[in-house]
């Protein structure tokens, strides 16, 4: 399997594929990547046609771990070998404006938003949407990058600067009760392995903790599943897809679609029988999908900016599942994650609290996740 | 971590180590090995001192996946970097005669046996032990190789040939009710993570299926655990160790000690929270050990000689856990294994039966394992 991008998602794909006899080859412009230890790495810019040729040789099917791969690269690869998911999934989701139009067409709701083509059109958008609002670049945003929160009129200057550089959308600030996500893996024949809804805690625009399955008293999980599966179907998507949602007083709003394996599904490596990575590869290879139910309640904690030594993690909780990505430390960088799986929700919460003080773990998010994990 | 040997056990060590941030380097004389895709491979004979030097550079600690590594190689590595388990564990278990003496010293029982230094001493041994008996080479035997079953006086000629080539032992043929094994992982501080006793089914001298936890009505599991932990302690062993036992009408007899991760513990990858591979690495690195209890009843089926395509396995059981080693097919060769984990013993048996007809699976052993799996 050829993988566009060779970060931690590529690494976890390679590790999930190894027992299945799947060998991964990566195309990524970085010289040193954390996936390269587990597959061949073609180190090249995405627009180098010779590199694309080398990447495609001997590869049966290609996929991506990174949705901001240039659409032309995806198309060039897709002309040589099957590309799953297809270019449709990439193109529909790379631009926030067309993504939102697509979501509405699929029958799901999004926050009120307006297009902002340049600095001058920002004022009109503000009169339409009101403040507070989020100004987001239409393309290439992730982990809160390419976003400005406009609280009051004095923030508008910063907004004009962003909008002057790139096409944006202005989106009404959503008062949500919680953030959840749903991960659907769709096979070629339309069968879906959909993991239980996950609750996500962010800080500084970065995911810090996930709780799975998310507490679900009112059928929200079923609704999220329906939304995720409908979107996957409408895209003709093959492979994993994550829909991030806001749960509001008025129901679920789609915040974003990631047409790939997703950080909020990392708990599935330890908390489900066949992880999002394994199921993604199985879909991409045209094989039957595996079980996607949760084995037991799980909490995932991201390690951001710094990572504790494995021995320190295991001293704090010998049963913690440790995932270090082999990346060098840098502020804001995802360096690893921990998963705690426990049948007993009180024990789960206690164990998560014991990890909250570790370097790289966002303490408040971990404590909040422990609290949330006790709610079924 | 440096690993002597680079077969499937090395491969599974590397895959278990990757999430913990452990990188493996292998020393193995084969040119192409199935572990090399997941770690650096120093391809060299075990007695090449330059290669040993290269192997040891940058490596924090060494271990082995193969107990027939020459003791001198182990010693040469151990002089440069910590070697875990130590040379003691290798030396005591490489020779069947000294292994049996050691087991008796540790308070456990072995089958009646006699030393056979050459062809001429076979007759004396036969008069002592009687027939039927097994003649086994003292060193380098595995998977039934280097063994001759002497049923009646006419078999003795074949025995004389084997004994003429290598020092042997003659062992009384044991009428056993079943074969079981216990895997102990011992840490530097003496703490043990001991997995539940496993029942093993052999055919043609090769392990075909394991059932874990083994049915245990009379405290046999506790006795096996005591034997395993005592042996590990007496060896000052650090890391995984497997004791293969015969359950007889008169109690447990130790058949063999493997001072390493073992095929009968492969179910722990999917059926326990922290596998034998992960716990071995944690012991070797001096880290706290992880949980070793079974998540649910499991059956492991070896794929010998030929391996089905992953898609065929997953069509037969989408929830089967597939482990293919990336080796080329050859009669008698271990090419992979499958694990079925299921809370429901009847469902477990049904699922195992559905896999019994796959190429590489030993049909009779799989059907027998399904039967045994329904007994708790």
Fold and architecture overview:
Two copies of one chain form a homodimer. In chain A, strands 9, 10, 11, 12, 13, 14, 15, 16 and 17 form a nine-stranded antiparallel beta sheet that branches. The first copy, chain A, has a four-stranded parallel beta sheet with strand order 3-2-1-4, sandwiched between helices. Chain A has helices at 8-17, 49-56, 71-80, 87-94, 96-105, 122-129, 156-165, 220-235, 268-271, 276-284, 310-316, 345-355, 363-373; strands at residues 2-4, 24-28, 39-43, 62-64, 113-116, 133-137, 147-150, 168-172, 178-186, 192-194, 198-203, 206-212, 239-248, 251-258, 298-304, 321-324, 334-341. Chain A is built from 13 helices and 17 strands. Helices cover 32% and strands 26% of the residues of chain A. In chain A, strand 11 and strand 12 (206-212) form a beta hairpin. In chain A, helix 1 packs across helix 10 (276-284), helix 2 crosses helix 3 and helix 12 (345-355) packs antiparallel against helix 13. Chain A is an alpha+beta fold and 376 residues long. The A-B interface holds A 11, 15, 18-23, 37-38, 273-274, 282, 285-291, 295, 310-311, 314-315, 318-319, 321-324, 326, 336, 341 and B 11, 15, 18-23, 37-38, 273-274, 282, 285-291, 295, 310-311, 314-315, 318-319, 321-324, 326, 336, 341.
List keywords for this structure.
four-stranded parallel sheet; homodimer; nine-stranded antiparallel sheet; 376 residues; alpha+beta; 13 helices; 17 strands
């Amino acid at each position: 399997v050829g993988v566009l991008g060779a970060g931690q998602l590529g690494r976890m794909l390679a590790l999930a594929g190894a027992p299945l006899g799947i060998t991964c080859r990566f195309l990524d412009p970085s010289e040193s990547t954390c996936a390269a230890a587990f597959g061949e790495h073609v180190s090249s810019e995405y627009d180098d046609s010779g590199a694309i040729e080398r990447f495609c040789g001997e590869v049966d099917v290609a996929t991506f771990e990174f949705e901001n791969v240039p659409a032309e690269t995806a198309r060039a690869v897709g002309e040589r070998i099957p590309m799953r998911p297809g270019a449709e999934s990439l193109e529909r989701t790379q631009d926030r404006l067309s993504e939102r139009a697509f979501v509405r067409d699929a029958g799901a709701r999004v926050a009120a938003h307006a297009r902002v083509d340049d600095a001058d059109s920002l004022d009109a958008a503000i009169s339409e949407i009101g403040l507070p609002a989020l100004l987001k670049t239409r393309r290439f945003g992730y982990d809160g990058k390419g976003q400005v929160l406009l609280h009051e009129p004095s923030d508008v200057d910063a907004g004009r600067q962003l909008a002057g550089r790139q096409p944006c959308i202005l989106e009404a600030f959503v008062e949500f009760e919680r953030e959840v996500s749903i991960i659907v893996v769709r096979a070629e024949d339309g069968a879906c392995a959909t993991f239980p809804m996950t609750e996500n805690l962010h800080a500084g625009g970065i995911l810090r903790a996930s709780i799975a399955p998310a507490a679900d008293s009112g059928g929200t999980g079923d609704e999220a599943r329906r939304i995720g599966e409908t979107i996957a179907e409408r895209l003709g998507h093959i492979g994993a897809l994550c829909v991030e949602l806001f749960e509001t007083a008025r129901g679920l709003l789609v915040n974003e679609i990631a047409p790939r394996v997703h950080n909020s599904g990392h708990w599935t490596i330890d908390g489900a029988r066949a992880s999002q990575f394994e199921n993604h590869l199985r879909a991409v290879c045209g094989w039957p999908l595996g079980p996607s139910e949760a084995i037991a309640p799980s909490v995932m904690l991201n390690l951001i900016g710094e990572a504790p030594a494995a021995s320190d993690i295991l001293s704090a909780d010998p049963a913690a599942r440790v995932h270090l990505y082999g990346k060098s430390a840098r502020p804001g960088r995802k360096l690893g994650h921990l998963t705690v799986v426990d049948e007993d929700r009180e024990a789960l919460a206690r164990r998560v609290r014991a990890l909250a003080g570790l370097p790289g773990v966002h303490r408040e998010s971990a404590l909040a996740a422990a609290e949330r994990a006790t709610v079924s």
